[in-house]
Amino acid sequence: MENLELLKGVVSDETFARIEEETKESTIRLADLSTGNYVSKEKYDGLETQLQSVNTALSDKTKEYDTLKEKAGDNESLKSEIERLKGEHKTNIDNLTSSFNEKLKISAVKTEITTKYKPKDVNDIMPHIDMSKVTVDKDTITGLTEQIDPLKESKAYLFGEDKKNKSGLDHVETGDDDAKLRAAFGLSTKKEN
Asked: Domain residues for 30?
């Protein structure tokens, strides 16, 4: 038996001699557990294996957390980038929709002015129209008559059908189309013989 000397002074000399004789071939090891310095090999091996497992698991988890942290950081910036792009996309769609609706509104107003009020040139009328006061709802246009009626009185020359003859010149009661045609081409208004 190993470490038998631990029993010296604890048991009588006679008992010590007898134990020594009887345990000569024993593989038993004695230890003083009161010192706290002894752990069995199996227990030590088990604890060492457990410690290695825990250290490996901690290391793996640390790597996993670092990876997740990195991904979470990327995800956060990716999420904010996606939100920014969504905001830009919504703004672009809103702007395009607004622009399209404004163009439709202008087209509807021009058509209304042309058919109902007979301007000489609708493009001469449009600068005088405050489009913010005009609403178009399907077939109904409101806020236009209130602007056109005073305009017809103050700028009557913008309205009414042009009276043009076949040459495209203003109709003249005297029938002197030749003189106007010659003037349009920068020629003398008198015919030279």
From this structure: 4-34
What's the whole-model pTM score? 0.42
- Show the tokens assigned to 156: 């009557």
Domain count, the chain: 2
Asked if residue 49 and residue 23 are part of one domain, the reply reads no
> pLDDT tens-digit profile of 71-118?
666 667 767 777 888 888 888 888 888 888 888 888 888 888 888 888
Q: What is the DSSP code string of the chain?
A: -BTGGGGBTTB-HHHHHHHHHHTTT---B---GGGS----HHHHHHHHHHHHHHHHHHHHHHHHHHHHHHHHHHHHHHHHHHHHHHHHHHHHHHHHHHHHHHHHHHHHHHHHIIIII-BS-HHHHGGG--GGG-EEETTEEESSHHHHHHHHHHTGGGBS---B-TTSSBP-TT--HHHHHHHHTT--SSPP-
Tokens linked to 118: 């007979």
pLDDT tens-digit map of 162-185? 555 555 555 545 556 677 777 777
Please tell me whether residues 27 and 94 are part of one structural domain: no
**73 shares its domain with 117:** yes
